[in-house]
From TrEMBL:
Compositionally biased tracts (Basic residues): 1-12
One annotated Gene Ontology cellular component of this protein: nucleus
Pfam families: AP_endonuc_2
Domain spans labelled Xylose isomerase-like TIM barrel: 54-313
Gene that encodes the chain: si:ch211-141o9.10
Protein name as annotated: Probable endonuclease 4
Phylogenetic lineage: Eukaryota, Metazoa, Chordata, Craniata, Vertebrata
Cofactor requirements of the protein: Zn(2+)
Presence of keyword DNA repair: yes
Organism this protein belongs to: Echeneis naucrates
A molecular function (GO) term: zinc ion binding
InterPro entries, alphabetized: AP_endonuc_2, AP_endonuc_F2_Zn_BS, Xyl_isomerase-like_sf, Xyl_isomerase-like_TIM-brl
Keywords, in A-Z order: DNA damage, DNA repair, Hydrolase, Metal-binding, Zinc
Span list, region Disordered: 1-34
GO biological process: base-excision repair
Amino acid sequence: MAPGKRGARKRKSGEALGEDTEGSGDRRRKDRGNKKYIGAHVGIQGGIWKAVESCTEMGGSSFALFLGSQRSWKRPPLDQAAAARFQEQLSLQGYEPAHVVPHGSYLMNCGSPKEDVFEKSQALLVDELSRCSLLGLHLYNLHPGSTLGAITTEECVDKIAGAINYAHQQVPAVVTVLENMSCQGNTVGGQFSELKSIIDKVRDQTRVGVCLDTCHAFAAGYNLSVEGGVKAMLREFDQEVGLHYLKAVHLNDSKGKLGCCLDRHEDIGKGQIGIAAFRDIVNEPRLDSIPLILETPGRPGFEYAEQIELLYSLCEENTLID
Ligand SMILES: [Zn+2]
Ligand SMILES: [Zn+2]
């Protein structure tokens, strides 16, 4: 059933777009028939523009990428020619900047109680936002930070918001998208209320949003595995934060059990969350047009391409396009 359905969706949206089916841009647009932008976190080895190609090859419609090495605080400046090539590929292959969500460096802790780490994190945040600007991108996804057990959550929230406000002064336009955490260790942002308290302290609230990671939410105690779990989570998110702040979703199943606080991603349908929640997500109209990005480990025969295909096959709107 799945491949046939997806094929039908492609053909129908292709007809609506006209006769030209030659370019890869057309292939991208066809994949967008049901308004769901499913993709994955792709690598940048060999050049940042290669990320675009990787996503297209796996049949994705949105993607995440790192903006540089995950090991160094200081990186060589982004090459202008590479940035131009990235933008060229993006437009050639039919992606909109709103469906590309760069992921912040894991080195950063913008809530760090250690002054040197805080300073380096703030500087890296400015650098990464500048890179987004150079790449023509509007969204930037960040893990809020950690108290390291040395300061209160409130103090940590103040530091995170301070770093974001500082970076926003240095770099215009890019929206900082805070990711919900799994409540592992001393991380901040596991509870939606913590994300809201950061947002409340960001001066330009048109420049802040949230990326909801399903594995993190489940590990933090939001029960997506029960019937109606996705709707319940979105309701709670809407009440505590506001759905208009939702800019992206990370689609990950969870190796760990509900409320385990462990950040352990699993392939779609192979973990404790289960396939039903993902079916609900890809059929949730409030998630139309929002990038839905996989960060799953993958296994032989069930890598990103197959998981993207599976998720698209679960979209019931597939058959409803005229
Ligand atoms: Zn993340
Ligand atoms: Zn994670």
